[in-house]
Design a protein that fits this description.
This protein is α+β, with helices and mostly antiparallel strands and about 260 residues long. About 25% of the residues lie in helices and about 30% in strands. The protein has two domains: about 50 residues, no CATH class; about 210 residues, no CATH class. It is built from seven helices and 16 strands. The chain starts with a strand and ends with a helix. Bound molecules: zinc ion (ZN). The site of zinc ion has 7 residues, from loops.
Length: about 260
């Protein structure tokens, strides 16, 4: 059973309402609305064979994320120059594809998507497996800091089961632990370590909805980070310097820091 948020009803993209039929925008199969009381309403169709093999059924986590973006950007079909098609969870007007990944994804499949989408950001549910979050934050506390403001951490990926799954991703991966800030694994590293930075959830959404066009765009943000890391690697800079990466209003301090300093007393 494939579940989606949108279907075509008389040629128009629609969300489900009780006892309705429509067509899958991807494979044209007949879909039926599922409007129960426990989960968000979906469109359902039977076989995955004919549809997008990459499709991961929506969880409430997916739905909450998608809802942060304009409807026309959600479940958008992306076609490459060879005519291959897939449904992107979100594709922004600036052409960025955002894939929300809840379940485990095999290395080969991850690479296929990394190749297919040229402008891709992954958002990964860090709360799917019980131990990942605690293991991740324990790891972060032990890491070297590459720059002080904002804090960029040098992280040994092998030490976290979650990070190991995302080894050498050439596109940025944002881990969502359900907190105000996401943790971004910055692409660039061919080594056993990766670089990570906390990114306010609101800033990530703002990058991709461009509600404030005066702010720097996502590309500029990523390039800024990559340049810091490449300077660090080629020893052009010393560790722990300050850079301006975020607009000041996003420089928030997380509760975890308070928690940590409290524990040190
Ligand atoms: Zn379909």
């Amino acid at each position: 059973m494939i579940l989606m948020k949108f279907a075509l009803v008389n040629g128009t993209k629609e969300t489900p309402s009780p006892k309705k039929y429509g067509l899958c925008p991807f494979c044209n199969a007949k879909v039926i609305s599922r409007c129960g009381t426990k989960k968000s309403w979906h469109w359902a169709h039977k076989a995955k064979v004919e549809c997008d093999p990459w499709w991961e059924n929506e969880t409430e986590w997916h739905r909450a994320w998608k809802n942060k973006f304009p409807e026309h950007c959600q479940e958008r079909i992306h076609k490459d120059e060879k005519g291959e098609r897939h449904i992107a969870d979100v594709k922004t007007d600036e052409g960025w594809v955002i894939e929300f990944q809840h379940s485990f994804i095999k290395h080969e499949e991850r690479e296929s998507r990394n190749n297919f989408y040229k402008k891709l950001a992954w958002v990964v549910n860090g709360n799917r497996r019980k131990r990942d979050k605690a293991q991740f934050f324990k790891l972060i506390e032990e890491q070297i800091v590459i720059s002080s403001t904002p804090k960029i951490y040098r992280v040994y990926l092998d030490d976290s089961a979650l990070l190991r799954d995302w080894y050498h991703s050439r596109h940025p991966v944002f881990f969502d632990f359900g907190e105000d800030n996401l943790w971004c694994l910055i692409p660039s590293s061919e080594d056993s370590w990766g670089a990570m930075i906390e990114v306010p959830r609101a800033l990530f959404i703002s990058f991709h909805t461009r509600l404030d066009p005066t702010e720097e765009d996502f590309n500029g943000f990523l390039n800024g980070l990559k340049s810091i890391i490449s300077k660090y690697k080629t020893r052009q800079i010393e560790a722990q310097q300050d850079y301006v990466i975020f607009p000041p209003k996003y420089l928030v301090y997380r509760s975890r820091r308070t928690h940590r300093s409290r524990r040190r007393l």
